[in-house]
Structure prediction request, 342 residues.
Amino acid sequence: MKQVTVVGGGIIGLAVAWRLRQRGVPVTVYDGGTDDAAWYAAAGMLAPAGETSFGQEALTALMVESASRWPAFAAELQQETGLDVGLDARGTLAVALTGDDLAEARRLWAYREEHDLKVRRLLPSAVRDLEPALSPRLRGGAYIPDDLQVDPRRVVAALRAALGEAVVPGRLTELPPGPVVVAAGTGTAALTGLPVRPVKGLVLRLRGEPGILRHVIVGYADGRHVYLVPRADGEVVVGATQEERADFAVSAGAVLDLLRAATDLVPELAELELAETVVRHRPSTPDNAPLLGRLRDDVVVAAGHHRNGVLLAPVTADLIAGLVVTGRPDPSLAAFAPGRFA
Ligand code: GLY
Prediction:
């Protein structure tokens, strides 16, 4: 098969290129670097239950499918490169600080249960038995066993190692000759004319001794939403704001909001070092579902993954590589056709 050019060296572009190469297709990946890469901020929650919201049936099915592919994807990547991507399968605790937070959380949990996603509701005492660092003020919670985490920076390092010299630095301003896969995140809009908009997110990284938290925490705290993703080395990722803006400013108010929500839920976090603040943009579409499939004869798109780029990487890579190699789209791609907004 002809050489395929992948435009975009983020988690989606690299995963697609890796799967293509495994199927015998020569690839070149143009990597625009980390300055505006969404994966560089991402906490790495693999959260088909935690991130599903009302009315997203096809997307929920894709998220569940991709989560089920993550363990094998991570194991294969580790086997090929010797690099551990930090897959942690201890699950997620969703917690609510006030009665109003609990009412909001319960509506979402009910919706997720209707979609056969596992949500085990817990009394506050049971939540704190699982996660002793949580505030005694919590009004309730739920254990979500199938929502996992990886470290996106490690995933990208491993994919880059697997692809070696096939990844070249470069930010293309127009599409190269085909066959081409466009996986350029927010840059996809300028390259293709497709409606991908930037949605600003601020993420913090705290550093302390390992062991403060045992699970990923998704919290509702006085109307604010926050997630806390603990890593084995003591890092705790705190995210994230979501704003319809395209700037990179780290505002004091946004940092304050995240830290207030985080420390309301886990007071001890106030003692950690605030090691990093990162703003990046989620590549988002009018329905916040990704653009996956053929745009023209020699141009395939894999972009616009909004809040779910890390989670959706394995299924995106398999489906897009399959489309490029066979020329036939898997039926599950129909709901994500890049031309659906035309
Ligand atoms: N996936 C979480 C976020 O986009 O903030």
